[in-house]
Amino acid sequence: MTLPLNPAMAATEAPPVMEARRWIQGVTFPADRPLINVSQAAPVDPPPLALRQAIADAALTNDAAHLYGPVLGLPALRAEISAQWSKAYGGTVTPDQVAITQGCNQAFTSVLSTLAGAGDEVILPTPWYFNHKMWLDMQGITTVPLDTGVTLIPDPQAATALITTKTRAIVLVSPNNPGGVEYPAEVMAAFRDLARAHGLALIVDETYRDFDSRHSVEIGGRPHDLFTDPDWADTLIQLYSFSKAYRLTGHRVGSIVASPERLAEVEKFLDTVAICPSQLGQIAALWGMQNLSQWVAGERDEILARRRAMVEGFQQLDGWKLLGCGAYFAYVEHPYDIASNDLCKRFVTDLSLLMLPGTMFQPEGSDAGKRQIRIAFANVDLAGIAELFRRLKSFRP
């Protein structure tokens, strides 16, 4: 006898990163051509030693670190985010407009749970972040794709034509995963105005904000002006992850910035799925925010150097087209008469390269997806990037 299966779950695609990992199972890579894994956008190194020491000290001496905490997160961390965000974005964010979650994916799922249900619609620019699409599918929410074309920048006017009475939100990711592009401030403002005019939520996922080439508190730069609007909370919901900046992937710490009224609804979701965020992870995030600004600036400089190497490499690679490059990602169009999902499997065996095909980021059957590939270069140093291009140049279809 087969147990019941939720049809929406059955219709949801398998996790792409896990699927790609299966491609390398049982494969023996030559000693002179070890695997270069550019499939996942997650730090592989542990946090800096001083941060690990802070976590260890808290585990040993702070009894509260091992107990349930507030559902919406530690007050000190919420206050720190509100202060730093207000400074960085030139607007006003208060502590009661901040909530802490078990990673940014949980931030997204909790926010969407307050906004939409089965039968509703949410607009996602394509190529999309696959976990966003997966959650909508699991909930029976219709994903409405917004094609971004060759620029990978979504067009507010094109989005207008997609809005119906069932639309509940528009989701933007900037710097973009998978596209790498940084959305211009005027585009973000236009989407804010569009969402407000139609009574929709504008969800802005800024997981990679620390690696935006325009974002540096030290030089007074900021990627957008959304928080300078005194009424931002009536439309804007911002998501963030501490995983990338402080290498806290295993501690699962993210955040939501939204109206207190929205967070009161979010609290219902969080209380039922996690009760509270990880205490040690929150302590680590707070310590990092208060002590590692210069270290994070150095990490950003290193990522920007790798970004430059990717741009230069594709300028010298015949037939390939670099569509977007930034944060952790290069998003490219390959020149071969082979669908990207098959081509990426060939790269594993022929080149010892693991990367994700555009078919994982586009609607099923998308011709664009068959021509596109995402390369997550953040975990590959400059020598590794040079070797990646050497192998791509040697490929013979």
Characterise this structure:
The protein has 2 domains: 7-46 and 295-394, Aspartate Aminotransferase, domain 1 (Alpha-Beta Complex), CATH 3.90.1150.10; 67-291, Type I PLP-dependent aspartate aminotransferase-like (Major domain) (Aspartate Aminotransferase, domain 2). It is built from 15 helices and 13 strands. It has helices at 7-10, 16-23, 49-61, 75-89, 104-115, 130-138, 156-160, 185-197, 243-246, 260-273, 279-291, 293-315, 340-351, 367-371, 382-394; strands at 36-37, 98-101, 121-126, 142-147, 167-173, 201-205, 236-241, 254-257, 321-326, 329-333, 353-354, 356-357, 372-376. The chain has a 7-stranded mixed beta sheet, sandwiched between helices. A 4-stranded antiparallel beta sheet has the order 9-10-13-12. Helix 4 (75-89) packs parallel to helix 11 and helix 12 (293-315) packs parallel to helix 15 (382-394).
Task: Provide the fold topology.
Blueprint lengths: L6 H4 L5 H8 L12 E2 L11 H13 L13 H15 L8 E4 L2 H12 L5 E6 L3 H9 L3 E6 L8 H5 L6 E7 L11 H13 L3 E5 L30 E6 L1 H4 L7 E4 L2 H14 L5 H13 L1 H23 L5 E6 L2 E5 L6 H12 L1 E2 L1 E2 L9 H5 E5 L5 H13 L3
Parallel strand pairs: 1-11, 3-4, 3-5, 5-6, 6-7
Antiparallel strand pairs: 2-8, 7-8, 9-10, 10-13, 12-13
